[in-house]
């Protein structure tokens, strides 16, 4: 099978890139190794900066219908202290951010990609990726019946995450195990006690987390825990890791008990990791990375889905009207434009997330920060601004980056 582009991964970054490229006339084949709908370890929140993209992807109506309530306040739960402050709203945005489960969101996005003409192979996994002459060759296999196929394209879009060791487009060297490695956990709860408009950061020893009211009236808890702390939690009696983490949160972060103490978990805990916050190579040899494959922020800032959607759109804009059969020079130029706009939009977000994460995981540091925030709660709003809650993709028009616009 020959295409203009092969997209590896059907999450928000892969589906958005595939959809926008297909609308520009590209022949796109997308491989997704999981059946949809499927849950993911994810905070589920999408900031208000994404409304133009949701409209461009034509999922804004469904998002409004299915997502949780408007999130208008940011908070901090640390020990017995619960702080909150107004969440900044982007300029020229008539709406607030909301949360929607990945099982719902990803299925919506992939449906729009299909309607745009993207060839979807699901559940299929890329087993090998190699260069032949001036093209990429992807050896793929069906996860359902074992069929195999060889796909060819001039361009590959790697949208299949950063931590999967089977990722053929990932960095070859894997980091060794470290005590500081972070593992992510996720669960939904019924009958939670979190106020509707509040999205608090949970600070606890050796980790951090977040709460938000999501779709179907469910309370979403997502958190990260250090490897050494996770290994020291009490799991006697066959307690699963997620339940041990929840017990650790409720024991050390009393402010979270009104929201979680009487809530009933719906479904199983999900786990993933270790996560690898930081920067990757954005472009090399006609291979473009988007989403977590391009760069990953600590989940403490709840910007993962936003970065995924926005990076997929940035790539499609950078490629613009470049045909996949164009010269290597044109693809390299598109790669430079993409890398420049990506860094302008996301580097400060990733750095801010790193600072906030390291504060939240250290009790003495978090306590000192909480003392300051009690006196100056507006600083919470400023922190939300620094983490990317008001900076839309259109900001990349400045500082010499070629002007881009969202295509309907």
Attribute tags:
alpha/beta; 32% helix; 408 residues; 11 helices; FAD/NAD(P)-binding domain; disordered C terminus; seven-stranded mixed sheet
What this model shows, in words?
The chain is an alpha/beta fold. It has a single domain, classed as FAD/NAD(P)-binding domain, CATH 3.50.50.60. The protein is 32% helix and 26% strand. The chain has eleven helices and 20 strands. The chain has a seven-stranded mixed β-sheet, sandwiched between helices. It is globular and about 60 Å long.
Gist of the model:
By secondary structure, the chain is of the alpha/beta class.
**Strand elements, count:** 20
Helix fraction?
25-40%
Named CATH topology: FAD/NAD(P)-binding domain
Structural class: alpha/beta
Main beta sheet: 7 strands, mixed
Strand percent estimate: 25-35%
- Radius of gyration from CA coordinates: 21 Å
CATH hierarchy: architecture = 3-Layer(bba) Sandwich
What is the CATH top level name? Answer: Alpha Beta
**Based on CA inertia axes, which overall geometry fits?**
globular
- Total discrete domains: 1
The parts where pLDDT drops under 50 for at least 5 residues are 397-408
Total helices: the number is 11
For the record, give the distance between the C-alpha atoms at the N and C termini, rounded to a whole number.
Answer: 29 Å
Mean pLDDT: 89
CATH superfamily: FAD/NAD(P)-binding domain
């Amino acid at each position: 099978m020959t295409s203009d582009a092969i997209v590896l991964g059907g999450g928000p970054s892969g589906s958005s890139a595939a959809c926008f490229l297909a609308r520009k006339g590209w022949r796109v084949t997308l491989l997704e190794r999981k059946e949809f709908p499927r849950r993911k370890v994810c905070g589920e929140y999408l900031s208000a900066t994404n409304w133009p993209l949701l409209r461009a992807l034509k999922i804004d109506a469904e998002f409004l219908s299915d997502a949780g309530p408007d999130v208008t306040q940011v908070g901090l739960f640390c020990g017995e202290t619960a702080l909150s402050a107004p969440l900044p709203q982007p300029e020229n945005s008539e709406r607030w951010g909301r949360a929607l489960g990945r099982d719902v969101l990803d299925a919506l996005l992939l449906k729009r990609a299909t309607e745009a003409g993207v060839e979807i192979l699901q559940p299929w996994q890329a087993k090998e990726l190699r260069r032949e002459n001036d093209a990429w060759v992807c050896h793929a296999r069906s996860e359902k019946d074992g069929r195999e196929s060889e796909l060819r394209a001039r361009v590959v879009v790697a949208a299949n995450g950063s931590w999967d060791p089977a990722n053929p487009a990932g960095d070859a060297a894997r980091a060794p195990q470290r005590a500081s490695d972070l593992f992510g956990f996720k669960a939904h709860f019924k009958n939670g006690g979190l106020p509707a408009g509040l999205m608090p950061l949970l600070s606890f020893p050796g980790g951090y987390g977040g709460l938000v009211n999501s779709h179907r009236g469910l309370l979403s808890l997502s958190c990260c825990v250090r490897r050494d702390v996770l290994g020291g939690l009490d799991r006697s009696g066959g307690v699963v890791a997620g339940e041990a983490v929840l017990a650790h949160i409720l024991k050390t972060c009393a402010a979270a008990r009104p929201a979680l103490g009487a809530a009933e978990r719906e479904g199983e805990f999900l786990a993933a990791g270790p996560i690898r916050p930081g920067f990757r190579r954005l472009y090399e040899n006609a291979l473009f990375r988007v989403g977590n494959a391009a760069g990953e922020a600590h989940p403490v800032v709840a910007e993962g889905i936003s970065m995924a959607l926005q990076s997929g759109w940035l790539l499609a804009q950078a490629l613009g009207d470049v045909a996949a059969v164009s010269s290597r020079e044109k693809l390299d130029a598109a790669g430079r434009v993409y890398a420049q706009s990506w860094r302008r939009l996301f580097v400060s977000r990733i750095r801010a997330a790193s600072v906030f994460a390291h504060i939240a995981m250290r009790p003495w540091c978090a306590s000192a920060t909480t003392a300051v925030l009690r006196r100056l709660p507006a600083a919470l709003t400023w922190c939300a601004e620094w983490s990317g809650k008001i900076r839309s993709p259109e900001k990349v028009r400045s500082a010499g980056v070629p002007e881009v616009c969202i295509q309907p």
